[in-house]
Amino acid sequence: MTKHLALLSLLACGCAIARTATNEPLDPALIEKLEPGKTTALETVELMGAPVDVVQLGRRSAYLYKHTREKSTGVVLVVFNMLNQDHREDRLWVFFDEAGTLTHFGSTLESDRTQVATPFKDLYKADKEGEKGKEQDTAQEKTAS
Questions:
Q1: 5-61 pLDDT, tens per residue?
Q2: Is 126 contained in some domain?
Q3: Interior/surface letters 94-116, b for 16+ CB within 10 angstroms, e for the rest
Q4: What is the pTM of this model?
Q5: What is the distance between the alpha carbons of residues 34 and 12, in angstroms, rounded to a whole number?
Q6: For a disulfide at 82, which of 7, 29, 119, 140, Cβ 3.0-4.6 Å?
Q7: Which of 104, 132, 112 is closest to 39 using CA atoms?
Q8: Nearest to residue 46, comparing CAs of 91, 90, 102, 89?
């Protein structure tokens, strides 16, 4: 009986890795083509494709474009399980006036920074430390100039 229980507990252990993505990644080159005061809602849809969401703001409107990427790893043991998920998004909000002309937009492009890591690693802490290193490098470059 003990041998069967030990064998069953070994077979119940394992690892898991998963990756998901929703929608196409947002292209920064296309976002740069948006011109407030000039680009229309129709031109925006022709350039970026159909938005994920359209919000009416009185007689004005806003379109949301979004790409999501998630990577997960896990350790499955008999009595103890751990999972690490890194979920990041590209988001673009574009705002139009009553005439359908672009007034302003804002974007966050983070999905390409999605990582796979062990369940014990804090991915966001590593990101912040990496950003600090980049900021210090940029500061050093500016000082050296």
A1: 666 666 667 777 788 888 889 999 999 999 999 999 999 999 999 999 999 999 999
A2: no
A3: bbbeeeeebeebeeebebeebee
A4: 0.68
A5: 53
A6: 119
A7: 104
A8: 102
